[in-house]
Input
Amino acid sequence: MTDARHAPGRGLRLYALLAYAYLYGPIAILVVYSFNQSKFGVAWTGFTLEWYAALWDDRFVREAARNTLIVAAASTALSTVIGTAAAVGLQRYRFPARRLTEASLYVPVVIPEVVMGIAMLAFFAQAFAWLNDALGFGWRLGLATITIAHVAFSVPFVTLTVRARLAGFDRRLEEAAMDLGADEWRTFTRVTLPLILPGVVAGALLAFTLSLDDYIITLFTAGPGSTTLPLRVYAMLRQAVTPKVNALSTLWVAVVFAALLLAQWVGRPPRAVAA
Output
């Protein structure tokens, strides 16, 4: 009878173990083979750190990493501010185009990325053609266009995440703050924002990771001198899968993991004040 009662628990643990192995096993293999001495990484021949040193000496990888971090930081900041404001506006206010605005948020989420990339490329081509002809500007594709494109597809994710946090928000807390003399801005910064901060941080982290690993939309909106790491990794893979690629991917996993830990720390709910 005891074994029968514990059988479902054992099965659940086995299922969880297999699920984790399926999800994280390839990443573990990638990390291990980034320290492999073999040039092509098909067989383990010994431990080495030379591939990480080779990455540091690769000027193209350094430039791609710099471009990626610039785009990710800028697009995350902009999309977080815009997405949070949009979430608050959609959750709190009623206006004629509210339903249409809510429906349009799902368009960048559900359409294929290649369609989004082509659309952004067509938009920039038409906009730059008009501005360059009418005003004499010399604008072209580059880091700015990549950042704008990343903001365009990241804002809906931030908005939906923050709205989920606002759905259970107690408006009486804001009313109490206003009754005590706080204006709308002070109420938002002192009451609303700290309480929805976990949702804002989660949306920002989602936007950051989406920007870090985006390839298709970046491919359509990048110009000369604006290669990001996903584009660089693909170019390296066209030659051969070497431990250098594994080392670069391992570092990128470490960056995302560090961002996740930071988001968990920043997004902790505020401690209750002792009476």
User: Anything to note?
Assistant: The CA atoms of residues 94 and 238 lie 52 Å apart. The chain has one domain: 59-266.
